[in-house]
Amino acid sequence: MAGRKRARRAARRAEKEINAVAAEKEQEKLDIKYMKQAMKQAKKAALLGEVPIGCVIVYYGDEEEPEAGHVKKGRVIGRGYNRRNTDKSTLSHAEITAIRKAGKILDDWRLEDCTLYVTLEPCQMCAGAIVQARVPRTVIGCMNPKAGCAGSILNILEMDGFNHKVLVTRGVCEEECSLMLKEFFKGLRQRLKVGDDKSRDS
Q1: Beta bridge partners of 118
Q2: How many Å separate Cα 61 from the centre of its chain?
Q3: pTM for the whole thing?
Q4: For 97-133, how does the pLDDT look when each residue is reduced to its tens digit (9 = 90+)?
Q5: Torsions phi, psi of 22, nearest 5?
Q6: At 123, is the secondary structure helix, strand, or coil?
Q7: Cβ proximity of 42 and 81 under 8 Å
């Protein structure tokens, strides 16, 4: 009898572990899917000559909740890309734009049932906005060792002392996000060099 009970407990543990692994793999697929959407936003920035940084916010709540209205689970409710130079505004970062749009869709400043996907580690302003918006989870493409505030210079998202901490996943589509930035800055340096050469010749 005791042997059967132990066997049943072991079977239940094994089933839970299998389900947990399956859920983790499914979440990894979703993270890649939505990070690729953030990368599409980043490419819009590059077309404007802006540093290619993109962001999307996905709603993961229960679509039956009345406060969610017509919003369905898995829907992208906020998109943004870097427009700082275009708009001549320090506030025109990808994350700030996406947070603003998501708030309008949900009719709430709290984004408590959402995940934010961004191609580059957020700066101090955007990390602070993510905390203020009560975003529970943020997924980052590549890190920013010179200005990032989600683990590089500071870790505002997971800082003790605030009334909200963000669960952070790093390195999703990291190589692709990093390559996009490297190619942008390589092209920028080449354009600047051509401009310098022309000014010397004139």
Answers
A1: 55, 140
A2: 17
A3: 0.85
A4: 999 999 999 999 999 999 999 999 999 999 999 999 9
A5: -65, -40
A6: coil
A7: yes
The strand ranges marked E within the chain are 54-59, 75-81, 114-120, 137-142, 167-170
How far apart are alpha carbons 68 and 66 in whole angstroms? 5
How confident is the model over 139-163, as pLDDT tens digits? 999 999 999 999 999 999 999 999 9
Tokens of 8: 């049943």
Measured at the CA of 8, the angle between CA 4 and CA 11, to 5 degrees, comes to 135
The CA distances from residue 1 to 8, 12, 14, 20, 62, in Å, are 11, 17, 20, 29, 42
Instruction: Please identify every residue annotated as catalytic.
Output: 95
**83 φ/ψ angles, rounded to the nearest 5 degrees:** -135, 25
C-alpha span between 76 and 111 (Å, rounded):
12
Radius of gyration of the chain (CA): 21
